[in-house]
Design brief:
The relative contact order is 0.06. The protein has helices at residues 3-17, 22-43, 48-64, 68-81, 88-101, 105-118, 129-140, 144-157, 164-177, 181-192, 208-219, 230-242, 246-252; strands at 123-124, 127-128, 259-262, 287-288, 300-306, 314-321, 334-341. It is an alpha+beta fold. The protein has a five-stranded mixed beta sheet, covered by helices on one side. The chain has a two-stranded antiparallel ribbon with strand order 1-2.
Length: 345
C-alpha cells in the first residue's frame, strides 16, 4: 500500500471515530492513531508534504487532548532529528504556543526568538511566521533591549503590516527604559514626522505627541532659563515680582511649551501656548504666598499669586523639575513651566 493511501486511511479512521462516543474517540485518537502515524513515519519513504501531514495530525491530536507536554516532546524531538525539515519554523511555533498555554512565557520567548534567528520564514495561510513571532515577542518580552530589537525588526521588515507611527513611539519609550536617550530622541523625531502623529490615539499614551514634541523642542533649545534648585527659582521670581521687573520674569519663563491656561484647559490646547510678555500685566502691585501650595511635591510646585487683573486676579505659577537625561548638567534642574489662571478647582 502506498504511503499516501495509508495516510488517508488513518485520517479517515480518525474522522469516523469522532462520530462515536467521546471515551472511545479519545482512546483511539490518543493511542491507536498516534501509534499508526509513528509507525508510518519510521517505515515509509515519505515526501515533505506527507511528513508534514502526519506530524501536524499528531500534534493536533495532542492539542485536542490539551496534552501540551506531549506536543512539546513530539515537536522538539522531530526538529532535533530533522534539522533540514522545511517546516521546522512551524513546528517550533506550535512548541512556543504550547509553552504559552502552560504559562511558561520565558521558554516561549526562547522558541519565538529561535525561529527568528535560526529558521527561514514560512507562510501559514498567507501569514508570515516571523511576523507572528515578533507580535508575540512584543507582548511577552520583559527586557527593554529585547523589545527594542523586536520593534526595529517589525518596522524594518513588515512596515506595511503594522502601525508604524505607534511603533516609533513605542520604540522611543523602550529606548528611554533602556537609558538610550540619543536613540529615544531619534525615535521621537521619526514619530512626530509621521502624518498622523498629531491625531493618533495610542493606548496608555494619551499625551504621546505632546511629550515627544516637548523632548525634541527642549533638546533644540538653549535651556538657559533653568535653575539648579527650586529655592533659587522661587527667590528669583519673587524678587522680580517685588521689583516689578517684567523683563526678568520674561527671561525666567520656559522658552519651550510655556503655557498659560485655566485649570480646565489642556496644556496642548493651542490657546494655552500663546506668547505674551509679563510687562502687559505688571501695572499694579502683585502679591504672592509665602510658601508653595500644599499640592506641590518633589517634582512640581505651585505658587499662588494675585493682583494681576480685575477680571481674574489669581494666578498660580507652575514650577517643575526638568526631566532631560540627555544632558546631565540640565537634568534635575527646575523651570517655570506655566501659569494656571484662576483659583484652584
Amino acid at each position: 500500500m502506498c504511503a499516501t493511501i495509508f495516510i488517508c486511511l488513518i485520517l479517515s479512521c480518525t474522522v469516523l471515530c469522532s462520530c462515536k462516543n467521546r471515551a472511545y474517540t479519545s482512546s483511539f485518537t490518543a493511542e491507536e492513531t498516534q501509534k499508526q502515524f509513528n509507525i508510518l513515519l519510521e517505515t515509509q519513504e515519505l515526501d515533505s508534504k506527507q511528513r508534514y501531514t502526519i506530524i501536524n495530525q499528531l500534534a493536533t491530536n495532542l492539542l485536542a487532548e490539551q496534552d501540551y507536554q506531549g506536543v512539546i516532546l513530539l515537536l522538539t524531538e522531530w526538529v532535533e532529528k530533522n534539522p533540514d525539515d522545511m517546516y521546522n519554523s512551524y513546528w517550533l511555533l506550535m512548541t512556543a504556543h504550547a509553552y504559552l498555554s502552560l504559562g511558561a512565557e520565558p521558554v516561549a520567548e526562547y522558541y519565538f526568538d529561535r525561529i527568528l534567528q535560526k529558521c527561514p520564514d514560512l507562510l501559514v495561510k498567507g501569514n508570515s511566521i516571523h511576523f507572528m513571532c515578533l507580535q508575540n515577542l512584543i507582548q511577552i518580552s520583559k527586557t527593554p533591549s529585547h523589545r527594542i530589537k523586536y520593534f526595529n525588526e517589525l518596522i524594518n521588515r513588515f512596515p506595511n503590516d503594522i502601525n508604524t507611527t505607534e511603533l516609533y513611539l513605542r520604540l522611543a519609550l523602550e529606548y528611554e527604559n533602556d537609558n538610550q536617550w540619543d536613540q529615544a530622541l531619534k525615535a521621537c523625531e521619526l514619530f512626530v514626522q509621521q502624518p498622523d502623529a498629531t491625531t493618533i490615539q495610542i493606548p496608555g499614551e494619551p499625551d504621546a505627541y505632546k511629550n515627544a514634541r516637548h523632548l525634541i523642542d527642549f533638546n533644540n533649545s538653549s535651556k538657559d532659563w533653568t535653575f539648579e534648585t527650586l529655592q533659587e527659582l522661587e527667590k528669583a521670581v519673587k524678587t522680580a515680582i517685588d521689583r516689578r521687573d517684567w523683563r526678568a520674569l520674561d527671561r525666567y519663563k520656559a522658552k519651550v511649551n510655556f503655557f498659560s491656561m485655566s485649570w480646565r484647559q489642556d496644556e496642548t490646547d493651542p490657546n494655552s501656548q500663546e506668547e505674551f510678555s509679563m510687562g502687559n500685566w505688571m501695572g499694579r502691585k502683585i502679591h504672592y504666598a509665602e510658601s508653595f501650595d500644599e499640592s506641590s511635591n518633589s517634582n512640581e510646585a505651585y505658587l499662588k499669586t494675585w493682583g494681576w487683573s480685575n477680571y481674574v486676579s489669581t494666578w498660580y505659577l507652575y514650577f517643575r523639575k526638568v526631566n532631560f537625561p540627555l544632558d546631565p548638567d540640565i537634568n534635575g534642574n527646575w523651570e517655570w513651566a506655566g501659569i494656571y489662571i484662576g483659583n484652584k478647582l
